[in-house]
Every structure is written in C-alpha cells, then in structure tokens.
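Hi R.,

Here are the chain sequences for the assembly we discussed:
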Amino acid sequence: LRAMLTFTGDLERAQEQLGAILSGSAETILRKGLRPEASGARIVSFEIIEDVLKLHIVSDRYLRSHSALLRLRGPLVDVVGRECSFGLRSMRIDETIIVPVDKKPLRKLKVPFAKEVVYLPDEKSVRIELENVDSSFLEDGSIDRIENLVYDKIEQQYYKGKAERRTVIWESPRKPVMFKQDPTIVLEKLGWIKQGPGLGQWFFGPQMTALFRSFETLAVQEVLKPLGFKEVICPKVTPFHVWEKTGHMAGSEPEIYYVSLPKSRDIEDWEKVIDLYKVTKKAPVKEIRRMLKDPMGGNCYAQCPPMYWALEKKVIASESLPILMFDRSGVSNRNEAGGRIGFERVNEFHRIEPVFIGTPEQVTQTKDRLLERYSLVFNDFLDLEWRYVDVMPFYLQQAGIVKTELSDRLWTGTVDFEAYMPYRGERSASEWLEFQNLSVLGDKYTKAFSIKAQKGELWSGCSGIGLERWIASFLAQHGTEQQSTWPKKLLDYLCEIPTWIRFL
Ligand code: ATP
Ligand code: ZN
Ligand code: MG
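And here is the predicted structure of the full complex:
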C-alpha cells in the first residue's frame, strides 16, 4: 500500500518525531494483538516532502496494510498537531491487494474502483489494483467488500445458468385433468380481461374483478385472519435507502421500475414540454427526460421492505411478539421483459404479502401454521394438484451448506408452491406455475434494520401470495365454464359474477 498523507502545512518541524514513530514505535503499534507467528504489517519506507508524508506498507493477511495505515494515522496526526499545530488535510491511497482464490476466474474480472484485476496462475491468486482511493474508503470496510466481490464473481462465473436446486418436498395426489386450455386465452375470449395499455398489464372487467376479490377474501379469511395477521397499508414507492438494507439492490436492478421526480414543480419551467406537446400531440419524451431528477427509488417490487422499515431501530416488547402483518394495498411492478406469459406473469401484479417477526420459535411456528392453512385452502377450497419445493440458491449449495429439512426446528430458506398447468403438457415434462412462496429469513432483515427483541434473537419470514397466480392455477385445472362443478367451499366465497357490456 502506498499512502499519501497531505497536511495543512509544512512538516519540517515534526520531521524528527515522525521519523521516530515510523522507524521506531510504529512496530509496537502494528504488532498489537497479533499472534507471534503472524508477521503482520511493516513500513518499508517513508518520505516527507513539504506538507506531504508518503508511506509504503507491506503486509500479510493478519494485519492488512490499510488497517495498519488506520492504526498509524492517529499517532502521526497527534505528533504533527503537537509540533506544528496543524492537521491532516487528506489521505489518498494506492493499494495492491493479493487475494488467494481456489478457482481460476473463467473470464476477466471487473470490479468497481479497481484499475485492474489480474489472475496470477502461479500464486493461485488475484491481484487487485486500487488507485487513488480516499480514507473513507478504508474506514467503511469497502476494501473488504471488494475482496468479497472478487470471490462472489468467480463463483458466479462457475454457476452462471445453473439454476437453484429445487427439491420437491411434498406433492398432492394427482387430480383428473378436467380442462386443458390456457386460462388467459379463455378469459380474453370471454371478455373478462383485456391486455392493458402498457407492457405486461391487464384490465380486469367486473367479472374478473369479482373472481379476483373472491380469491383475495379467501386468502385473508382462511389463511391470514385465523392466524391473527393484521392488515397494514404500505407505501408503494420504495426509496433506495430501504432496498439498500433489504439487499434488493444486489440483483433486482434489471427488474425495477425506477421513479424520478421532476426537477421543478414550477409550470413555467415546463413551458417547452407543454408547447411541444401542443404542437406535436406526442409526449416529448426526450424533453421530459431532461426535466427529471435522478431516480430516488422505484415502484413496489416486494411489499416487505417498508414493513421492516416501519420497525427500524425499535426494541419490541416480548408481549408484542410475534408481529404478524400483511399488505395488499397496491400493485407490484417488475420488468419481466421477455418472460411475460398470460395474466400470470406480468409487469404489474397483485400480491398479498404477510410478514411475521418473532423469536426463532415463534417464526418457525408461524411458518408451520401458514403451511397448514395454505394446504387446507389449496386442497379443500381450490382442489388443486400442487406441490411445494425447497429452493436452494446456488451460493448456498456452493458453500456446501447442508440444508435442514423444512420440518426441522429452526429451518431457514424458501419454499415455492407450484401448480400443474395441464395446458402446458405432461406433468413431468411441463413447467409448473409458481403461485406463491414462503420464506424464513432468520435474522437477515431484523439485523439489517436493527430491530431487536426485548429478549433474545429476533427472526422474520414472509410469504408472497400471488393472486393472479392463484387464479391462473385454479382456472387452468378447473376451467371457467363449469362453475357448478367448482369445489363447494370455494363457491361459498364466490361473489356473483356480474354481466358486462355487450359491445356492438
Ligand atoms: P418467478 O420465479 O415466477 O419470477 P419470483 O421468484 O420472482 O417468481 P418472488 O420474488 O418470490 O417471485 O415473489 C413472490 C410471489 O410474487 C411469487 O410466488 C408470485 O406469486 C408473485 N409474482 C412474482 N413475480 C410475478 C409476476 N411477474 N407476475 C405475477 N406474479 C408474480
Ligand atoms: Zn418479502
Ligand atoms: Mg421473478
């Protein structure tokens, strides 16, 4: 590591004391807390030119060069303060980091802030060259995160395209196939739904809306209310600072609908935009873009982030646990691009999201009870052929973590619920539709938002009830026509399907 410390004046008067630290007491400072066999960090050379102190530090992994520099900074600044009564103006660093890797990168690695990342085959290492970074970069742990990023990127290169591992945990008995059509096509023909004006949107007529509300009520009344979940209403534009904590800013970026506010609220500043429209009768998109601020966040991607945010930095009394809440107050938007199918895989969808927070035992118990209620609904109310699968992301597989069984005490992970879609083909050969999921997240989110329990650990979990997906799964198996043959228990929830316009 080569550091350049610039002070607010000439270092002449402090030269001797600085020298004494750097070639003397520095060693004690740098050895502090090190095991005898570790060599740690040492100062190779230093140089004082007017107001600048240059340092060259070399280290092993037991005390990294940048940590050594941070250790030395205090004593150096103290001496300069005492001798010359002025302080440190800035600190710039060039650092070469060698990190051992157990796999050879398959392609050239690109890492932010690094001028260069090179694989060294003989040393089985990667050399990262950082150039001209400032002290805040050292203090906030960015360098460690750069190293982790290198490891992650190498793993990703090996696992690219390899899907998560999916293990079927449970499946319902096979049900006789009664319907083999694609519900989207059928509903469009019936005039219940109409493709929306924007990408991946649908307009639901009153018939579809009646069906939709019936399913929504079913989920609330038969799953959430019996378990004691309370309804909340979450904001639907999520600022980046919330996603920074949930981790959505590490992978959801290509799917986010970004939100930008106008630079000005003054109608006069918009004169050109307005006039252009008046003349061309087209939205002057380029001109509008010029009038926008940087994005401040995005439309709802999942509903849980604001629920965690609402509890940020709170300590929860034991008697208030578990916290059980759900949101169904608005749409989620995702850029599904090429992946859109029918009304069940869309850019704008409706989901109920329950979130549960409590002791590990309470979270586990809530997961079990949710699973029970869900099973009841899918078996008795919807008479579905369905299954659930344990989803293990590749990075966990890679870490060699042996996942516990869903039935185990204190299981964490995600299960996806899938329905057989007869119109897509044979059971074993066709893709089943993921119609909802259920996750236990351990303390990942409670930690991220510093939410604490009065006593002990605090865990959380959430579940995404995709209402379009529930309906698509049900209709794909039961059809739209024979409502009289639909399960009796569902009929109790079914609102009357109204008639609608006869178009001429
Ligand atoms: P998929 O694998 O189908 O893209 P996902 O893993 O992205 O789903 P999650 O982020 O886990 O989905 O969201 C939870 C639930 O939200 C899903 O189980 C589904 O019911 C619903 N959902 C997600 N994306 C969509 C979409 N594009 N259209 C309709 N519902 C969706
Ligand atoms: Zn969630
Ligand atoms: Mg998705």
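The mean pLDDT is 93. The pocket of zinc ion (ligand 2) is lined by residues 302, 304, 353, 462 (CB under 6 Å).

Let me know if anything looks off.

Best,
T.
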